[in-house]
Amino acid sequence: TTQGTSQATASIETVQEDGPPSPLSAAMVDSLNELRAQYEDFLRGERYSQVERISTAVDDYVQRSRSQGADEQQGGKGGKAGGLSGTGGDSVGWGCPRVRISLAELRSENPNLAQRLRHDPLRHLRALEAACHAIASEERPGYDKEDIKVKVAISGPVGASPSSPRQLASSSLRQLVCVEGVATKVSAVKPKVVKSVHYCPKTQQHESREYVDATDPQLGLPAVDTTGRELPDRIINITSSVYPTKDKEGHALETEFGLSTFKDYQTVTLQEMPERAPMGQLPRSIELVLDHDLVDRIKPGDRVQIVGVYRALATAASGQSSTSGVFKTVVLVNNIQILGRDVSHLTFSTDDVRTIRALSKRNDILSILGRSMAPSIHGHGIIKKALALQLLSGCEKNLANGTHLRGDINILMVGDPSTAKSQLLRSAMTIA
């Protein structure tokens, strides 16, 4: 019996029985803690420095949050709906910290665990994120004061080769897939309610309500209590999306939008690459669901590689879409890689990030960048600095009188023949 069948059997037994949990249910309760312990052992290993990666992801998120808060105070403009809507002094950044975990590294350390992650991703991703949260809480205490937790982005080859939308079949449902294609349609970024807070003027009491839709990764999994243990008799189901207008006693409720929690939500249509479509057939498409910090990263026409969970959606609260038994399928995106635009697929280690941050604090950083431009060409130090500044671009400004100043930097290079003018421009083009 597969693991997915075991989960379905456990959920049916717990719903029908009112007595003590069965041995299978008890095994499910312990499995989350066991999975979290196995992933913690992998993350705490010294071979791949996963602890430093988690700390760097949290530091980057905090820095983005502070810079966004400073920009909002200077510009007087509200930020996009993302993460949480807080009332504290510190601004909350987009989405959440996201640490990149390579499936190839996990496969080299624990092949069995990597295989189980591939075939039962939703349950394993929850355990992996819980392990990352535990490590982040130790390394960066208080990072989750706004109820923000670390998310995981799975990278690396999932199978022998990336799939196309045409190759996704019913055998791939509820599994981790890697899909390549061309983005043909990108929707606008919209806020989706996660938890709403309501106030009753008559009783002067607040009450909250959480929402789960068909695209929620937690749908169908056992609920988790405050201690981190699974509750097999409480399966997470789809909830109604209608705001409550009255409490249990019939008193009117007012929605507190400032205290409610929202997350960014976006859908993308991914089409099969034309050169990979069979001759004489139209390319096929699949819909992608993005949320949190993954939104607004794909533009129409981009060639992307997606890692996510292939899922069939149930559109009704009862879990049934229609009597025909045909369901809409989507990919719940976990990681995005832009093909041909992600800096030639470069990956920065923790030492690289530490070196970059150390260089950014030096006063002679412009001279260092100038010397690094076309090192095979002797001299021309001022021209090399100018090319470095052109690559970095300037600051775009909007003056009070409505004048718009572009941040682009143009260079006019004049000199005698055979003085490496073309080679310098070619070097700048290669770097860009």
The pLDDT mean sits at 78
* Helix residue percentage: 25-40%
The sequence of SSEs as H and E is: HHHEHHHEEEEEEEEEEEHHHEEH
Report the sheet-strand fraction: 15-25%
Helices and strands: which structural class? alpha+beta
**Assembly of the depicted chains:** single chain
Which regions contain 5 or more consecutive residues with pLDDT less than 50? 1-30, 77-93
Order of the strands making up the biggest sheet? 3-9-10-12-11
Name the overall outline: globular
The separation of the N and C termini measures 53 Å
What's the number of extended β-strand segments? 14
Counting H and I runs of at least 4 residues, what is the number of helices?
A: 10
Radius of gyration from the CA trace?
25 Å
Largest sheet: 5 strands, mixed, barrel
Task: Write up this protein.
Residues 1-30 and 77-93 have low confidence and may be disordered. The chain has ten helices and 14 strands. The protein is 32% helix and 22% strand. It has helices at residues 3-16, 23-43, 50-75, 103-109, 111-119, 121-139, 350-360, 365-372, 381-392, 421-431, and strands at 98-102, 151-155, 176-186, 190-200, 205-210, 222-224, 230-235, 254-255, 261-271, 285-291, 303-313, 328-338, 397-398, 404-405. The chain starts with a helix and ends with a helix. The protein has a five-stranded mixed barrel. With 432 residues, the chain is α+β, with helices and mostly antiparallel strands. Helix 4 packs across helix 5 (111-119) and helix 5 (111-119) crosses helix 6 (121-139).
